[in-house]
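Posting for a labmate who doesn't have an account.
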Amino acid sequence: MSGSKILVVDDEADITELISLYMEREGYHVHTADNGEDAVLFADSYRPDLIILDVQLKQMDGFDVCKRIREVSDVPILFVSCKNDDTDIIHGLTVGGDDYMTKPFSPSQLVARVKAHLRRQSVNDRQNPYDRAAGEVLRFDGLVIDLPGRTVHVQGKEVFLSTKEFELLVRLAKTPNRAFALDDLYTIVWGHDSMGDTRTLMVHVSNLRKKIEPDPANPTYILTVRGVGYKFNIKEGNTHVQR
């Protein structure tokens, strides 16, 4: 949203300048940092609405920066990196990143993703995604999803989910046994087109399974639908919506 505060963290001055230029054209207020230590400090003092974070930084890499920020904030974090290896993408999203773009990228593409994340964040702040105002609590065998409280309990114990993990779980659980195509599910949760790269979605599903499934290697809640995508699996009668 116009007027939102963006923190751009990159140690390449020309990249920082280019990103800042495009963000400011959209009406965003931009603050920059060129190393990890400053990024953590600025994230705390500047309180940005979104962070664009390079992976390769001085003093502290982007992954460690993300982990430090996640200790105190759920601000959307968009990783940018010249590393296109699946291992790096998985690691970035596992430590708390919401999205991951590889360099070189189109500035207009970056702007589109930033707008999408800010829209989603704005909806969350207004407390009304997925009918949360209705006070829904989704109950399944061993799993309770409290929408207004944004909490999830597995076998009676609360588990922490990132913003995107929670949104993904809610989207699947509110329409149980419906198979979602990868691209469609990505667009619904991330708010923009996947452009054919659904690795971000798949990593989030993997992380989600590790947190809610009794046996992540043999999931019972979030199932893979071969050739399609994913679905939330329940048996007949095994759901209750409390209002």
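Reply:
Got it, the structure tokens are right above this. Residues 137-232 form a domain with the Arc Repressor Mutant, subunit A fold (CATH 1.10.10.10).
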